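Quick start: what a row looks like.
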Amino acid sequence: MNIEPLLDALGLQEEAARSLADDLRTQITQLQGRLREAETRLEHLAITRKTVTALADRLPTQAASPELPDHPDYPRILAVFNDDSGPMRARDVCEALDHVLLPKNIEGTRAKLKRLVKLGILTEIDTGSFARKQ
C-alpha cells in the first residue's frame, strides 16, 4: 500500500493549519495592542473625570440663565450683543443678522428684543435702545 498521497494530503493540511494559526497569532497581537490603547484611553478619561469633578467644586456658581424662546434668532441676537458692547436698536440688530431691512423684520426683531428684556437678559436703556444686562 502506497501512503505517499495520504502523507502529501496531510502535509498540505498541516501547512494550511500552520498558516491559519500564524494569521490568528498576528491578529491577536494587533488586537492586544488596540486593547492596550483603549484601556489607556479609558484610564486617561477616568483621570480627567476625577479632575474635572474635583475642580467643579471650586468654580463660582452662576445664576441659572433663563430659557431662551424656541426660535433660531434668539441665540444669534445674543451673539450680536456679545460682539458689540454698545446699545443697539432693532434696525442695527437686523443688519447684524443680515435680515432684509423691511418694517416687518425690524418690528419682529424689536419684539424679540423686548422679550429678552422681559426675561432679564437685555435691558432697554432708552426707548428702542437695547443693551446686554450687566
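That is the whole record. The helical segments are 4-56, 73-83, 90-96, 103-118. The chain is about 65% helix and 5% strand.
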